[in-house]
Write a structure and sequence with these properties.
With 463 residues, the protein is α/β, with parallel strands linked by helices. It is 29% helix and 23% strand. Bound molecules: manganese (II) ion (2 copies).
């Protein structure tokens, strides 16, 4: 059952489409380095494609009918797009789900301190990371500061060409004898991920020396540029992310190297398919959630009632809400819960079982199950559903591959699939394979991005 690279199957037109999609995707990654930024860009693209805010429709007590396009936003961190189908919602939806939060370092709520005339910011990492990978690389600060008066200031430092960046230092190799003997998980400890943000003291008018003059100078800059005080960190969400831009990777430009591809690679391809699909018989949905990397918890994670509530609102706008109708709509739905998979890595062959591993250039990945230690925590999709999807992908010339994360008992991971499955809908983990998942810069294959988008589009039309 050895499949071949899909690259050799493309004609000129397809290669042009592939490059255009890759370019648009790189742009999405560059403007969307946080879940909030991804929501903002998704709203922009949705509006440009005729989608209207569901809140506005509810506010003016308007109704929804087949062909209408709406979006709903949850706390600026989660978004759902719907295209109303010609069939009753009770018959079920076609749902593309993915997450838009990515591993990173978050500033603590009281982050600023000064040590040895250096101003630093304390962080708490978010999601699973190899901490040692986050030192000595250019970092940017993204996020919001919510002031007491209700105003919200957006922060972005380190992205523009002439912006400064920030960084976390590492011990020089010359003195690192003892450090190098430590376990990799302890080489850099969580509380040592301190972001260096300044070294120049504020000059005072009087002769007396200022205490903590370096952080005072940094605070003065924040006051000037963002009108924020040190106390405002208390109600801020500032994420420390790699400052690098998404780049073509490989001499043949066949890959993309970028931050946050888990899971914006599935989010973006799902979104593009959704915008391209247009109205179908079934109501289509593209759901981009937050908090997947920390267990899908919180008001903006998949475990919250946002999705269910939004579907209830849709039914109400169509004049046929009932509790039973809502349950039927959810139970009769089919979903591709898309998240990244591990691509086979020739540098680490012993961690993979080759014929059940995902390979770059072999297309969209389906994972029947995820989980760890005997599929624990997995969704485990139904064979009948997989058979149905195989037919759709084959009919539409979509290259796909079945994989699991690594060798049995090597580790594991979870997604949002099992949460959606609680409604009794058919759901399978699908997505795109990455190298270096959760590293500051992750690698993907352009061919897989192209096949994923094709697969999502075929799913919305035929599932
Ligand atoms: Mn993920
Ligand atoms: Mn992840």
């Amino acid at each position: 059952m050895q499949k071949k690279s899909v690259w050799n199957t493309y004609n000129e037109t397809q290669l042009t489409e592939l490059e255009q999609l890759a370019k648009d995707y790189r742009n999405f990654l560059n403007v969307g380095k946080t879940e909030r930024e991804c929501v903002k860009e998704t709203i922009r693209l949705a509006k440009a494609n005729g989608y209207e805010n569901l809140d506005d429709i509810i506010a003016r007590q308007d109704s929804l009918k087949a062909g209408d396009k709406v979006y709903a936003v949850n706390m600026n961190k989660e978004i759902a797009l719907f295209t109303i189908g010609s069939e009753s919602l009770e018959k079920g939806m076609r749902i593309l789900g993915a997450h838009i939060d990515s591993p990173r370092l978050d500033l603590k709520q009281n982050p600023l301190y000064e040590d040895s005339e250096m101003a630093l910011l304390d962080t708490h990492y978010y999601g699973g990371i190899k901490k040692y990978q986050w030192v000595t690389i250019p970092l940017a600060l993204h996020g919001v500061v919510a002031k007491k008066d209700g105003s919200v200031i957006e922060i972005s430092i380190g992205e523009k060409e002439d912006d400064p960046v920030v960084c976390i230092s590492d011990l020089l190799i010359h003195l690192a004898g003892k450090q190098m003997e430590k376990k990799a998980s302890e080489v850099i400890e969580g509380d040592d991920l301190n972001v260096l943000i300044g070294n120049r003291p504020l000059t005072s008018d009087e002769d007396e020396e200022l205490k903590d003059a370096v952080s005072a100078y940094v605070l003065q800059i924040l006051k000037e540029q963002y009108d924020m005080e040190e106390e405002d960190f208390l109600s801020a969400e500032i994420e420390v992310v790699p400052a690098d831009r998404a780049r073509d990777c490989g001499l043949d430009r066949s890959m993309i190297l970028a931050y946050g591809q888990d899971d914006r690679i599935c989010a973006y391809t799902s979104l593009v398919a959704m915008l391209e699909a247009g109205p179908q018989e079934k109501t289509c949905c593209c759901l981009l959630v937050d908090k997947e990397e920390i267990g899908s918890v919180g008001a903006t994670g998949m475990q919250s009632a946002f999705f269910e509530n939004t579907v209830a609102e849709l039914m109400n706008c169509m004049g046929n809400f009932s509790e039973l109708g809502l349950r039927r709509a959810l139970r009769n739905s089919k979903m591709l819960s898309s998240d990244v998979s591990a691509a086979f890595d020739p540098n680490f062959p012993s961690f993979f079982e080759k014929k059940n591993a995902a390979h770059f250039g072999h297309g969209l990945v389906l994972n029947k199950y995820t989980g760890s230690r005997g599929k624990s925590g997995s969704n485990d999709a139904n064979a009948e559903y997989i058979g149905h999807l195989r037919r759709i992908f084959d009919d539409n010339g979509v290259a796909f591959q079945m994989s699991e994360l690594g060798k049995v008992d090597m580790g594991g991971g979870g997604t949002i699939a099992y949460i959606c499955a609680l409604y009794g809908m058919e759901v399978i983990d699908s997505g795109v394979a990455l190298l270096s998942m959760h590293a500051p810069m992750e690698i993907s294959s352009k061919a897989d991005i192209y096949e994923a988008k094709k697969g999502y589009l075929a799913f919305l039309k035929e599932a």
